[in-house]
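FOLDING PROBLEM:
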Amino acid sequence: MTSKLYLGTNLKMYKTNRDTAEYISLLSALTGDLDPDRLQLFVIPSFPAIADASRLADHRRIQIGAQNMHWAEAGPFTGEVSPLMLRELSVDIVELGHSERRHVFGETEEMIRLKTDSALRHGFTVLLCVGETAGEKEAGRMDEVLRGQLAAALDGLSPECADRLWIAYEPVWAIGAHGQQAEPGYAGCRFREIRGALLRLWGRRGEEVPLLFGGSVNAENAESYLQLSEVNGLFIGRSAWDAFRFSELIHSLAER
């Protein structure tokens, strides 16, 4: 299992290009003292902000991601963004399978599989999001859902993909301003299920995939999630959208 700590955020649709540029510049200055061999930071801005964010970031210290991607290199797909477009902007990470893409925009498991395969083939690191809804949790189907999402997204991929795959476990019912907090014990069970699924799929290479937790993470609960044995990092929401506050959290976790 990797010893590096992974900390990052998805800015969703909350910062303009100017806001994002200011955020990246400030976060870069505030975290420049940290060792990039031990800590991997990442920021995933909106599509219009990627070019400036990528230009301003030292990609060894702060990797830049895209919030989605179409699987085709080109085509009559109005409103979509291709892997070639993202590669031209020096994007490092492509986030796929976020719950809002699944449950608000109707992306299917097959679409996520096609995107995952394409992103890996084009040299990106894939941040694959998985997680159960409140209804699935109440029905006791949490682990079944996680296994199904992983199996569908990674179908046909070889163990060699392990070095360019990150998994973010985000229980859907714990995301957002009004999300409930997933107790560390509950999250730990889900992470063991995810790791087990990767091991069954890819053998020992499954140990190399970093696992991140995202579900209403904040300064008060971040440490409790990082104490879980299978957790390699945190995928943080609104608690990371202020560069000063995020820097304080990063430093507190990096120095633990």
